[in-house]
Hints:
This protein is of the alpha/beta class and 182 residues long. The chain has one domain: HybD-like (Rossmann fold), CATH 3.40.50. Helix content is 25%, strand content 28%. The strands form two sheets. It has a five-stranded mixed sheet with strand order 2-1-3-5-4, with helices on one face. Strands 6-7 form a two-stranded antiparallel sheet. Strand 6 (159-168) and strand 7 form a beta hairpin. The longest helix is centred in the C-terminal third of the chain and has 20 residues, at 135-154. The two termini are 21 Å apart. The model is unreliable at 93-97 and 173-182 (pLDDT under 50).
Amino acid sequence: MAGMPVEIVVFGIGNVLHGDDGAGVYALERLKKDLRVGRGVRLVDGGTLGLELLDYARGGSHLLFLDAVDAGQEPGTLVRLRGSRLGALRTKGDVHQLGIADLLGALRLVSRRRRAIVLIGVQPSSTDWGTALTEPVHAALPQMVEAAVEQLERWGQRTRRVVVPQVREGGLRQRVGVRFGD
């Protein structure tokens, strides 16, 4: 992939009507507000679109998926998958919910372009009907966003200085850090 332009696409995947299954979509919403994410990164709310995401994926040289993943871990545990480990992902239950593995399989059929592909997932606690995340998954969202930002840096996002004000007891304190940017 050396010499080719970097085109990063980040997908938030999941069904926000099934509890923790919506974690990827909620993480993407937080990432959209994160000042460290550069303008050149395309952020896509993939929800439950499945194969309808093929055109978005086809345009990227680097694909990052945020999703709930049953990895047999404690609820709220983050997992990072890439390469052959992504092929082990299975469809989420029925033919109407084609998963990431199905999307990547279709992508290989329509494009020979080499891509860097990473999934940052969180172990769900419950995917029953409901719009609220369970406490362990909700608590893991900030780490999921941090892991996504770190992955963007690995893929060549330039850094910039971001001033993050923090409210402390007794007044305002500022924290300055070097982070990603456009």
